[in-house]
Design goal:
By secondary structure, this protein is of the alpha/beta class. The chain has one domain (4-304): Aldolase class I (TIM Barrel, Alpha-Beta Barrel). 29% of the residues lie in helices and 22% in strands. It is built from 10 helices and 13 strands. It has helices at 73-87, 111-123, 142-155, 171-177, 185-195, 217-223, 240-244, 261-269, 282-286, 294-299; strands at 4-11, 15-21, 27-33, 43-47, 51-53, 67-70, 96-101, 129-135, 161-165, 203-208, 229-234, 274-276, 312-313. Strands 12-11-10-9-8-7-4-3-2-1-13 form an 11-stranded mixed beta sheet. A hairpin with a 5-residue loop joins strand 2 and strand 3 (27-33). Helix 2 runs parallel beside helix 3 and helix 6 (217-223) packs parallel to helix 8 (261-269). The chain is globular and about 50 Å long. It starts with a strand and ends with a strand.
Length: 314
């Protein structure tokens, strides 16, 4: 297995985005990042692609402009091992070593993601390993989710982060934002009740929150238990798709909300843990934030000014 790195953008102190060619010829993006001022040996995050393109096409994501195929197990591992080998070899002495299957592609549509999760404990010596799956919960993938639960129980009890992309509590608007058939809130809640066992992390309900999004705390309270679910609010990052669709982030750089502060307060009053996650604004320029896709930026004749001020390393 060999990854050919074509380009590298970013800064050592924040994040790098890599553009590479896999052993099977796919052009993929993958990321490594830190969280200043936390040192790399305390927290290190890898974000890898699971597909060559993405068939979902979420309203704010630049990675959904095309779709070729699912990546094979070896192609996903190549991304991880390239980053691990250049930093630590196969021994990763990082307290919180998060691998997110969230750069390009919907992980729940690729069985190879589960094969990678099965294999990681045998190819890495990483006591702090914390895999993270972020999914829109596509319909018809019940067997995939059942196997994911079995793998979590076998290898990652208490050390697994599960996240469902919600974005709106209005089902019709959610269908506009995520234009594929997917689980409804009742189905997500039912799976979460089974998935979260004693000692496990709560499941994250993620809202990439635009001011235009409809959010109602009553819907969350109706379907989800604060004992097994938490809510994470993130900005709508500066992407071409967000600009084309007129989406304005409700989350400001200081973590305050423009329109939806009441939604957050009502959730807190109901006992939900609510995380407002802004991250490093420098990552918008690097192109390492969620929804950003540097290949879209490089090919675009019109360059947006809010993000993608790429600095390439040779």
């Amino acid at each position: 297995m060999k990854m050919e790195v074509i380009a590298k953008y970013g800064k050592e102190q924040v994040a790098y985005v890599y553009l590479g060619k896999t052993s099977r010829g796919a052009l993929v993006e993958f990321v490594e990042s830190v969280q200043p001022p936390v040192p790399r040996k305390k927290k290190w995050v890898l974000i890898v692609s699971t597909m060559d393109g993405c068939p979902v096409g979420c309203k704010m994501c630049d990675a959904g402009g095309y779709y070729k195929r699912k990546l094979a197990k070896e192609e996903i591992l190549e991304q991880i091992l390239f980053l691990v080998n250049q930093r630590f070899d196969r021994h990763v002495p990082v307290e919180k070593f998060k691998i997110q299957f969230a750069r390009v592609g919907e992980p729940a549509l690729n069985d190879a993601v589960l094969d990678v999760l099965e294999e990681l404990p045998t190819v890495l010596d990483a006591p702090g390993l914390l895999p993270s799956i972020s999914t829109v919960a596509p319909f018809g993938r019940t067997e995939w989710f059942e196997r994911l639960f079995e793998i979590k129980e076998k290898h990652y009890r208490g050390r697994f982060q599960m996240q469902f992309s919600i974005h709106s509590t209005d089902e019709l608007q959610r269908d506009e934002i995520i234009p594929v058939k997917k689980w409804n809130f009742e189905e997500i809640a039912r799976y979460g009740e089974k998935f979260v066992k004693e000692g496990d992390r709560k499941i994250t309900l993620n809202f990439a929150l635009a001011s235009e999004n409809i959010v109602n705390a009553g819907v969350i309270k109706k379907y989800f238990s604060p004992d097994k679910f938490l809510v994470k609010i993130t900005p709508v990052n500066p992407t071409y798709k967000a600009l084309e669709n007129g989406l304005k982030s409700d989350v400001l750089g200081d973590g305050s909300l423009v329109k939806h502060a009441r939604f957050v307060q009502e959730l807190k009053d109901a006992g939900f843990e609510v995380i407002i996650s802004v991250g490093e604004l420098e990552e918008n320029k690097i192109g390492s934030n969620c929804g950003q896709y540097i290949q879209r930026h490089l090919k675009s004749q019109f360059k947006i000014s809010e993000g993608y001020d790429l600095v390439r390393e040779n």
